[in-house]
Amino acid sequence: MPQGPHMLFERHAEFTRAVGRSRGKVIVIVHPFYARDRQPFFDYNDAIKLQRLAYEFNLKRLISRAKAPVIVMEEYETEMEGVLRQTHAEIGSQNTFFVKTKAGKALPHGGWKALHDVLRQSGVKTVLLGGTTADTMDEKEARKKAPEILRYEKRFNRPATETITFGCVARTYESFINGKYAKVRIVPSIAFPRRPRYGERPALTLWQRVKMQRLLKKKK
């Protein structure tokens, strides 16, 4: 592990070489341990706690196996320096590059344009995205709250019964969609607390199940 976090803007040349080796692919993680640092709010029952632990396990496994460079967007203000150090201690590596964001927001210090300029100059084409917080809505709600994300996913034929529409992951997703990369994808296994559901049928309501049972009886 390096002595300190590799800051992306300070190690642009090194990052560019890593992007070249991965043929333009990067993994972007937004505020990886935000939920754990706020356990009283997120771990309000055992099921959510287990879900968070599974998310963290998936996250660490993906990063440890990643051949593509990993960009970690982490909260940073003067009084929050320890957050960045702790995240680096857990998932930092020669292949991990950090970007500081505002506290409680996905917005990078320096703004989105500066980040996208550096990424495009480095040859980034494909972005795989995850982290916290990620929240979802069905298509009807997504059409009102996140029409741009919904249009993008429909364009690339990813039918989703639930779409990422709210939280820092959604704001980052939206920004990367506007960044004009060849491909931007959410990785469901590393999105918390709600993951998008691609290619899955929504659960039937009680009334739908009753109607189906009646139709099946008629056919008999």
Order of helices and strands: HEHHHEHEHEHHEHEEH
CATH architectural label? 3-Layer(aba) Sandwich
Number of domains: 1
Q: Which runs of at least 5 residues are low in confidence (pLDDT < 50)? A: none
| Overall 3D shape | globular
Percent in strands: 15-25%
Structure description:
The chain is α/β, with parallel strands linked by helices and 220 residues long. The chain has a single domain (12-219), classed as Rossmann fold (3-Layer(aba) Sandwich). Helix content is 45%, strand content 23%. It contains ten helices and seven strands. The chain has helices spanning 12-21, 34-37, 39-42, 46-65, 81-91, 112-121, 139-145, 147-155, 168-178, 206-219; strands at 25-30, 70-75, 96-101, 126-137, 160-166, 183-193, 197-198. Strands 1, 2, 3, 4, 5, 6 and 7 form a seven-stranded mixed beta sheet that branches. Helix 7 (139-145) packs across helix 8. It is globular. The termini are far apart. The model has no long low-confidence stretch (mean pLDDT 86).
Brief summary:
The protein contains 10 helices and 7 strands.
Sequence-ordered SSE layout with sheet pairings:
Elements: H1 12-21, E1 25-30, H2 34-37, H3 39-42, H4 46-65, E2 70-75, H5 81-91, E3 96-101, H6 112-121, E4 126-137, H7 139-145, H8 147-155, E5 160-166, H9 168-178, E6 183-193, E7 197-198, H10 206-219
Parallel strand pairs: 1-2, 1-4, 2-3, 4-6
Antiparallel strand pairs: 4-5, 5-7
